[in-house]
Write a structure and sequence with these properties.
This protein has about 550 residues and is α+β, with helices and mostly antiparallel strands. Among the domains are: about 70-140 and about 175-250, PAS domain (Beta-Lactamase); about 400-555, Heat Shock Protein 90, CATH 3.30.565.10. It has twelve helices and 14 strands. The protein has helices spanning about 35-55, 60-90, 100-110, 130-140, 155-165, 190-200, 240-290, 305-355, 360-395, 405-420, 440-460, 515-525, and strands spanning about 90, 100, 120, 130, 205-210, 215-225, 225-235, 400-405, 425-430, 435-440, 465-475, 475-480, 530-540, 545-555. The strands form four sheets. A five-stranded antiparallel beta sheet has the order 4-3-7-6-5.
């Protein structure tokens, strides 16, 4: 067990800082020409925008709606013209009136000229009577119009037009329409909707012209009362509709280009706020891995108050813990070398002296010293090995629920059964409440209690009392161990927890303890998230009545 009296022996000078070289092999390549994280941020944003734009750009429903509206308007126009023809363009006897060509031509010309619609009037036998194209062409005159000056914005529109012309053939196409034919002769051959109109119903059709322009046709009957005297066929191309769809698509294309530019810029900005700091943290971690005798700082990004800030804080804490562990290993290695060097020096001195003396008594004393030094070294090596395993065990093993009440009762039972009479008595005071449970390693917690109790036993007089009390204090379980020994030298309350601190009571053989017990206790308690402290018990007269150890462990 570790004692607490006296002063520690001399320590060697602080060793030079440890140098680690070649740890983990060559450094991985971290500098990339283009960040994959940037690509992963950019790709979903651009893809989502592309899918949305592609869905909007595919305007078949919008186009179909325009075609339906155009056909409905043409049907209304055709019914108006057919009504006018049925009322004003008939000539001949009442029971056999027929459409008069001249009157019909005037009505068609008057009603069709203001529109961009072509009207053809057919007789019941399918022969054409009047065609608005011929009527309008007869009075057409040549007009000169000057083009406006070139606009610089036309270059931008030219770019979008080229992009549109490249993209349009690659869009999904709707159902194919029958081709449009216009041949001289009977119209019933090329326009089946005329047969529907001559039967008294309204007919219509959509056909594809050779330049992929649609031709819309509507046929309505021209009637005198209930008698069909002809059929009016209105036709119009879809140039205006295609122009409207094209303008809509160009507007979408321009808005998409702007949205794409903003998306790309925002993606790069977002990637920069993520990939840049992550790259800095990765480079700093790599510098820590390739440490060459100097501390490497982790960039402090805690001001971000986000996950990267949390990562920065975690890496900083991990790095500080690593440096602390390395420093502890360095100091521990120096302390071990110092503690082992003492018995080795004594052993070497005894070996050199035993060869130079012939006195049997002197040789016997030297052999006793050598035996004691060997035992001391064996004890040191065993305790050092145990201390070295504590860290690995605490990090490797999983915590389990531990009942501190049962743990104390079991350890005291073992101690009492192994105690030699006469010796100090034990007194255990427990919280009258339920069992006190904590999460931890039972074997290591038992080692803490056993070390403290063993330490108290070594300093308590034979008629003394070792008191143990366990209670709840808020969110902590508190264990107090008190003895009736000489107490702790003033100012050494923290020093007794240092490694290899060992000064035993008078009369105890030198080298019986390695000075690691209390140091291991603090290591185990702190690994469980608790604290361990030592103080003196002071009586009413101000005298030291013994020592008190207080262990506090968090409750789950």
């Amino acid at each position: 067990m570790v004692s607490r009296l006296g002063q520690p022996g001399p320590r060697p000078a602080e060793p030079s800082q440890m140098r680690l070289s070649g740890i983990g092999g060559p450094a991985p390549e971290r500098h990339r020409r283009f960040s994959t994280l940037t690509l992963r941020i950019l790709a979903p944003n651009v893809l989502a925008l592309g899918v949305l734009v592609g869905g909007i750009f595919y305007l078949d429903q919008y186009r179909d709606g325009l075609l339906d509206a155009k056909i409905a308007a043409m049907q209304s126009q055709a019914e108006v013209i057919a009504g006018a023809l049925g009322e004003s363009a008939l000539a001949g006897p009442e029971d056999s009136r027929r459409l008069a060509q001249a009157v019909s031509a005037r009505i068609i010309r008057r009603l069709v000229v203001p529109t961009r619609t072509r009207a053809r009037l057919y007789m019941p036998d399918g022969n054409i009577l009047a065609d608005s194209r011929e009527l309008v062409a007869a009075g057409r005159q040549v007009q000169l119009r000057y083009l406006p000056p070139a606009d610089p914005s036309d270059r931008v529109m030219s770019f979008f037009n080229r992009a549109y012309d490249w993209l349009l053939p690659r869009l999904p196409r709707g159902p194919a329409f029958p081709p449009y034919h216009e041949r001289p002769g009977n119209g019933l051959v090329d326009y089946p909707e005329l047969s529907v109109a001559l039967s008294g119903e309204v007919g219509g059709a959509i056909r594809m012209f050779k330049d992929e322009t649609l031709i819309l046709t509507v046929a309505v009957p021209v009637q005198q009362l209930r008698r069909v005297v002809g059929a009016l066929l209105l036709s119009a191309d879809s140039a205006e509709i295609e122009e409207g769809v094209r303008n809509a698509r160009l507007a979408i294309l321009q808005a998409s280009a702007l949205a794409l530019t903003v998306t790309v810029l925002m993606s790069f900005f977002l990637a920069g706020t993520i990939a840049g700091p992550v790259r800095r943290l990765a480079e700093a971690a790599d510098r820590v891995r390739r440490w060459r005798g100097r501390r490497v700082g982790i960039p402090d990004l805690s001001h971000r108050r986000d996950e990267i800030g949390d990562l920065s804080g975690a890496l900083h804490g991990m790095t500080e813990a690593l440096y602390g562990r390395l420093d502890a290993i360095e100091v521990f290695a120096a302390d071990v070398a110092h503690e082992i060097k003492n018995p080795l020096t004594s052993l070497r001195s005894a070996l050199e002296s035993i060869d130079r003396t012939d006195d049997p008594a002197q040789k016997k004393r030297l052999m006793a010293v050598m035996t004691q030094d060997v035992r001391r070294m064996d004890r040191l090596i065993s305790d050092i090995s145990n201390a070295s395993r504590v860290d690995a065990e605490l990090a490797r093993e999983e915590s389990v629920p531990v009942n501190l009440v049962i743990l104390l009762q079991t350890l005291l039972s073992v101690r009492q059964s192994a105690a030699e009479a006469p010796g100090p008595a034990f007194e255990l005071q427990l919280d009258p409440g339920a069992a006190i449970m904590i999460d931890g390693l039972p074997s290591r917690l038992g080692q803490v209690v056993d070390n403290i109790v063993g330490n108290a036993l070594s300093f308590s007089p034979a008629n003394g009392i070792i008191k143990l009390s366990l209670e709840r204090q808020g969110e902590m379980a508190q264990l107090v161990v008190e003895d009736d020994g000489p107490g702790i030298p003033p100012g050494q309350e923290e020093a007794i927890f240092r490694r290899f601190y060992s000064q035993r009571p008078a009369g105890e053989a030198f080298g019986q303890h390695s000075g690691l017990g209390l140091s291991i206790c603090r290591q185990i308690v702190e690994a469980h998230g608790g604290t361990i402290n030592a103080e003196n018990r002071i009586g009413p007269d101000g005298a030291i009545r013994g020592a008190r150890f207080v262990v506090r462990l968090p409750l789950p």
